[in-house]
Amino acid sequence: MGQNLKRGRRASPRLPRAFRVFLFGEAVSLFGTATTATLLSLLAATQLDAGPGWMGILAAASWSPWLILGLPAGALADRWPPRTTMIVSDLIAATAAATVPLLWLTGTLSLAALVAVAFVIGSCAVVFRAALPRLVIRVVDAEQLGTANSMLYATESASTIVGPGLAGLIAQAMSAALGVLLDAISFLVSAVCLARTRPATRLPNHAAAVPEESFLQRIRAGVNVVARDRYLRYFAGLAAVQNFGLTGLLSLQVLFLVDELAAPQVVTGLVLATGGVGGVIGGLLGPHVAHRLGTARGLIALQLTSCSCLLVLPAGPGAGVAWMAAGLLLCEFAIVADNVIRTTWRLTYVPDHLQARVSTTIQMLAFAAMPASGLVSGWLGHQLGVRTALAIMLGIYVAAALTMPLGPLKGRRDLPAPPRLSRLLERTASAAR
Questions:
Q1: pLDDT tens digit string along 211-265?
Q2: CATH number for the 15-201 domain, one of 1.20.200.10, 1.10.238.10, 1.10.10.10, 1.20.1250.20?
Q3: What are the residue ranges spanned by the domains of the chain?
Q4: C or N terminus of the chain, fewer CB within 10 Å?
Q5: With contact defined as beta carbons under 8 Å apart, do 353 and 208 qualify?
Q6: Full-prediction pTM beyond 0.70?
């Protein structure tokens, strides 16, 4: 993988100061966003009397920007300076978040305003995430990409553990609306840290000359690279199918714990938190798995490990909830470690001027599966029962995971090196013209 995670090469023990400054700001922002996602829901339900319909709209407003803006954001982020793009995204998101306490204090806060804020913050997240890979490869040496991605994914997983609980404490202490102000501050902290981050002026080793293309041609070029490369195409399809299955688990897990397993609220929270703990461990150990097994073999092993999500199914009341906790912990560990390896490889495999477009194309496909999965899993739960619905959705995930040993990685120790894309890029550029 460029081959920074291959056998015999270890990442430098200390990441550059520029990355450490950026990581601090990103950590503050991630924890703030994870807290606000819960605060907005609490605000809508407890103070604005939102029913199920409005709650669904509010949730959709957060992820729908990936479907609407994913491809255009990738095309723009590949042309704009990554640090500037991310700073502007943070400042717009901070402004949007700050409107919530302002409207609440003036008595004009409405559900429509909350939906608009969620959509703006979600849109900023799309642009920010599109530019992030291009910043990382400018502040971290190639040999350190695995460690850098490990820290980013571990931090993101940690935010999912702490964020919801912190939101409850904030809402109880100072009201949910004023709590959103903390998220606005977290975006500003991220922007300041980015402003203090000094990326290298040199381009990555695999950077290529950027062809002159129209906006639509830039979008099509990114899609074509994913569609025509057997590895990127396989990973994109795998992400879409597995997201479909996992979203079914996310949609039904609380209902399963409360209704089927009769778990108290405290136990429910602890069981769900185990997934985040597994994610933190996976984020930290991802590079070690790649170094020990090889990047391709490591991905295969992690995909097979993620099939432990099936341990959710035999869970029962009382001590039987431990089966679900174990399944969530092992599955999330494997998924996040897999993401660390795959993202690190993609940073060295895809040319710099296509990074954002390839990333957002894959992410858009993955997120597109989520709304359909929510509807399907809900219908299955109503028709067949929650446990049966979970078995079907997790079966879809596991079936996709089991294709990994038979797919394009079959027989490989490591993922392919960057030069493999050269001819494909020439064909893509010719087609665009």
A1: 566 667 777 877 888 888 889 999 999 988 998 888 888 777 777 877 788 877 6
A2: 1.20.1250.20
A3: 15-201, 222-433
A4: C
A5: yes
A6: yes
